Amino acid sequence: MAALALRHDGPDTAAVSGPRRRALGLTAALVLLLVLVVLSVMIGSTTIAPTVVWDALVHPAADIDQFAIRDYRLPRTAVGLVVGMALGVAGALIQAVTRNPLADPGIFGVHAGASFAVTVAVGVFGVSGVAGYMWFAFAGALAVTLLVLALGSTRRGRSPVVMVLAGVCVGAVLGGARDGLQLTDPDAFDAMRSWVAGSLVGRPLDVVWPVLPLFAIALVLAFAVTGPLNAMALGDDLAKSHGVRLVRTRVLAVAALTLLAGGATAIAGPIGFVGLMVPHVARWLVGPDQRWIFAYSVLLAPSLLLAADILGRIVMRPSEIPVGIVTAFVGAPVLLALVRRKKASGL
Amino acid sequence: MSTSFTHARATQTAPGERVDFGRRVLVVRRRGIAVRLEWRSVLVCAALALAAAGMAVLALMTGSYRLGPDQVLSALAGGETGLVHDIVVEWRLPRVAAALVFGAALGASGAVLQSLLRNPLADPGIIGFTQGSYTGALIVILVVNGTYWQLVGGALLGGMATALAVYVLAYKQGVQGFRLIVVGIGVSAMLESLNIWLVLKADLEQAMAAAAWGAGSLNGVSWDQVAIGGAAITVLLLLAGLLSRPMRQMELGDDAAASQGVRVAPARLWLIVVGVALTATVTAASGPIVFISLVAPQIARRLARTARIALAPAAFVGALLCLAADYIAQHLAPTPLPVGVVTVVLGGGYLGWLLFTEARRRL
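Above: the input entities. Below: the structure tokens describing the complete assembly.
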């Protein structure tokens, strides 16, 4: 695992804590994630005892609880793991590349771009199945990322707030266009309805397989650019003098970001604020070193997503709240707190 | 009534002589009340009114039963009976009137808020007031199952409460424009989730009604709603007109305004109340129609070439835009769409352009 390999060569640039403590923290994050995975399988409209969960995995039988676990809760948990990981790393990437503490694929309209493209694929081209429309999601995510980067760059460099506004505006336009398309095509609307809210429900594992190899590539890319991104945090000129190839780093980072955000949207629909919160928590825990931030994000983001999903199942039993709604409720206050800090300047 | 034009290039002002404002002004004096209007603004408003009237006739002509302009005009004058009268006056006119009145309200609301926050990006749709109104109205629809008046009240309360919350959350040694906007974005994200959740929780039938309404549509607007909404909006527009002088002075800064005799705190409170109430009234009647309040004041400012945001041209531009957007949504789209979908696409594109040119120059 890339995260574990990094433990040994992590430099001591951040004075928050030593590599040993950070590695311990990483282990704790892993344990937390495992606990949440187990809870996610146990908790639902009915709570299933851990022993039954164990039996379902080891001694399959035609029991209703086992059926619920194998056919519903396990796939849902797996989707949560994959999507959470993608969202967290995408958030860390977009914050590092734009040096913007308010950056989030959801706020920046990347999810909206992907979901608009998917609507076009389903409604106009009649594409069905994730393997078909994920390419549209990637294209949409890429186009919006580039557009927002261009719109948000002022002459005096990049202003975090202008970039947020650019993202919100692009997101609003594409959201409106998506609504319009869906309203003109009732069949597409029906197919997309459950997907638009951003949820982990009803996504069979078949949906995940085609995206998984691309996620793996994106993760490798993301960890490969963490070193150059560290140097770029000092400013473009200093980074250049350290031998960082700025254009190549940005292109690779945006490519990884596109794959992660587009793929996550293709699987689960738009889920906001996970990519905003997790890198901040990671940065707060481990300091400014991007390698550690990325490693922590890989583990913390699925934890957050699973926790939000579990919460969504508990609050309104026996019905559920889609996880995208829960993350917005938890995440928006984080955005408010970030803006209220002394200054919402660049990272 | 005495009307006079001034275009004096006086270098010094003797008592009784007119001040040179650098622009042609039209002064209307009647029974002790004097109103000084900028000649260009008056012309622009008149032209916009003409364009809106033309657009209205076009909208009244178009539909599955096509009518000629002569038929429409004579139906409006009361000269037609039977089917043509029914189509024009009973079916199509409420919608056209609603588009004009609501559009004017949205334009004026945007002008008030943009002037108050001194920011061209302040829009009730972006900073969450619209979503708040929608939340209030949704609670009335889904939980209380209330009447139209309760719906209006709910939308009003929701909008006000959101405005208050955004203002308080953004307050930190004064309110800085951009912080307020990002706080508003966060609050509106939360409220949107709350709205989705409320719709999910409701019965299917209520949820369908709420969802159709949520896109912002003028479908099924009745004469009653237009009359009630129109009355409320007229009162609010008059209030806004009365407040336009302190509004203009407060654009110079609170201290400068206070030194010129404006009581800043009450004036600001009233302006917020009027601005939010205008949006909330529209939201209660038609659902959230976003981005008109963002676009209209800026277009109006460019047309009238005023240095500040002017109220009346913004209202006229809003009316014309809303009617045009509704026409596009109804007749030019492949299937009839809610007008809110059209305004969000057009307005969002405009916002992108605005960011691209103006905001980046100033930041």
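Note for the figure: Strands of chain B lie at 2-6, 25-30, 33-38.
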